[in-house]
Amino acid sequence: MCCREGPRWGRGHCAPSPTLLLGLLMSAAPLGLLGEETRQVSLEVIPDWPGAPQNLLHIRAVGTNSTLHYVWSSMGPPAVLLVATNTPHSTLAVNWSCLLSPEPAGGLTVLPRDSVQFSSALVFTRLLEFDSTNTSEASAKPPGKPYPPYSLAEFSWNNITDSLDPATLSATFQGHPIHDPTAAFANGSLAFRVQAFPSSGRPAQAPRLLHSADTCQLEVALVGACPRGNRSLFGLEVVTLGQGPECPSVQEQRSIDDEYAPAVFQLDQLVWGSLPSGFVQWRPVAFSQRQRGRDSALPCQASPVCLTLEYPLPQSPIVRAFFGSQTNFCAFNLTFGAPTGPGYWDEHYLSWSMLLGVGTPPVDSLSPLILGIMAVALGAPGLMLLAGGVVLLLGHKQCSEYQPIN
Ligand SMILES: *[C@@H]1O[C@H](CO)[C@@H](O)[C@H](O)[C@H]1NC(C)=O
Ligand SMILES: *[C@@H]1O[C@H](CO)[C@@H](O)[C@H](O)[C@H]1NC(C)=O
Ligand SMILES: *[C@@H]1O[C@H](CO)[C@@H](O)[C@H](O)[C@H]1NC(C)=O
Ligand SMILES: *[C@@H]1O[C@H](CO)[C@@H](O)[C@H](O)[C@H]1NC(C)=O
Ligand SMILES: *[C@@H]1O[C@H](CO)[C@@H](O)[C@H](O)[C@H]1NC(C)=O
Ligand SMILES: *[C@@H]1O[C@H](CO)[C@@H](O)[C@H](O)[C@H]1NC(C)=O
Ligand SMILES: *[C@@H]1O[C@H](CO)[C@@H](O)[C@H](O)[C@H]1NC(C)=O
């Protein structure tokens, strides 16, 4: 409602153009040759103030010349601060009495202050739910009629210490509404699983986002909650900080139909300012089953990002503690699923992943398997000539018909 530009619905997945594919083929280099940056990553739950149990998780990723700080918390709505410094020795200082006060500005600082090169934040303010039953009719626009949203500031969260796993560098914030008159979350929860990485790689599970030591992954999962309608679509409202008077925008990048992410040709990216700065990256796909595959893939739509002056949003104490009160907040909505096809209604399960990081966002290259198949089957000159044909073959995943040429 706050945007003049309406949400853009129904942008389907598009196939990459032959020229784009050719460009990608020519620039695709095995990851190992690009040089891997590694970081010394540690996760620490910051001990809380007596009598006021709070979750504050500090991820510190130290490189040769820089340190990244990710501070996750479920004080207020779940939020993360992202701070990059140009020294391997920067530290996070927490003043609990200030942080828990009504005026938290100054309660969180990264020292030395002049080492900070970039900082921003994301806040997950509300879980949205829409009734998509009648969206095929002209009267109702996708994603459908909104139900009253769940404010994530009014959730109760588990003790983050219990889910901390130093082996996988991960921790999970799991919560449910404090007031739940309809018992929708009696057997359900919303979980934010956070994971850091010491080096680059790719998880085993879809959507297999390529990560680096400069990034942190967030996996959001809604499990077992009772939807309010037979065809409920869920969404997340996300708030971020604008740099200056403008809001960052969500850019769509074409990606390749690769074995890593079959049938998803797009990578969405939110970038704060000109690169290299901070970024959020995700594939526009969510999953309606723990077994993530094509059968359970749902589209994920992002609304335009706009200033939030016109409607009140729950405030995050950690964001106010670090940034003070004079900041521009920008919001956008993510919506998962479509009125038809698989949905949350199948198994009362929904998961979606994103990466948060600083520097240059990881760029997908063709997987070694696909490169190998093409090299063997075509040879390099043929590759150039037949780039157009490759598009078709890749698009239809007919690698098996392809090998007999050899
Ligand atoms: C979380 O658990 C740890 C150890 O199990 C305990 O020391 C801490 O006080 C707990 N925190 C909260 C918020 O309950
Ligand atoms: C770290 O900084 C030093 C001096 O500024 C520079 O020579 C070196 O190349 C930097 N190392 C990396 C990995 O950026
Ligand atoms: C923490 O903040 C309080 C105000 O909330 C202030 O009085 C106190 O001096 C601060 N402590 C430190 C160590 O800075
Ligand atoms: C959907 O449309 C039907 C027929 O127009 C109407 O009876 C029903 O109340 C509508 N349902 C919702 C949720 O709007
Ligand atoms: C929660 O689970 C219990 C046991 O499995 C079941 O009896 C109960 O009906 C469920 N409640 C809701 C609201 O689904
Ligand atoms: C949901 O579906 C059931 C059976 O298909 C139907 O009886 C019920 O009225 C539907 N509920 C809503 C809110 O549309
Ligand atoms: C997000 O969705 C909610 C509920 O429909 C709406 O009130 C809000 O204006 C939307 N925000 C944006 C930025 O589109």
TrEMBL record:
InterPro entries: NCU-G1. Its main location: membrane. The chain crosses the membrane at residues 369-394. Keywords: Glycoprotein, Lysosome, Membrane, Signal, Transmembrane, Transmembrane helix. Residues 1-35 form the signal peptide. GO terms for cellular component: lysosomal membrane. It is found in: Lysosome membrane. The keyword Lipid metabolism does not apply. Interacts (via lumenal domain) with lysosomal protein MFSD1; the interaction starts while both proteins are still in the endoplasmic reticulum and is required for stabilization of MFSD1 in lysosomes but has no direct effect on its targeting to lysosomes or transporter activity. Required to protect lysosomal transporter MFSD1 from lysosomal proteolysis and for MFSD1 lysosomal localization. Belongs to the GLMP family. This is Glycosylated lysosomal membrane protein.
